[in-house]
Structure prediction request, 59 residues.
Amino acid sequence: MKKNVGGMDRPLRIIAGLAIGGLGFYYHSWWGLVGIIPLATGLIGWCPLYCPLKMDTSK
Prediction:
């Protein structure tokens, strides 16, 4: 897996994932689990959706 998430995209994904998860925890909602997706892609540095779209923000 080649990293395709970088620059400002990576920290924004981590912050968004934590915010979504925190709001889900605060409101006792299962929707907070959606925050795992941006958090994981930000921590790993690879987004599976970027591959078919041929996007790369790691430059």
Q: What stands out?
A: The chain has three helices and no strands. The longest helix spans residues 9-26. The chain has a mean pLDDT of 96.
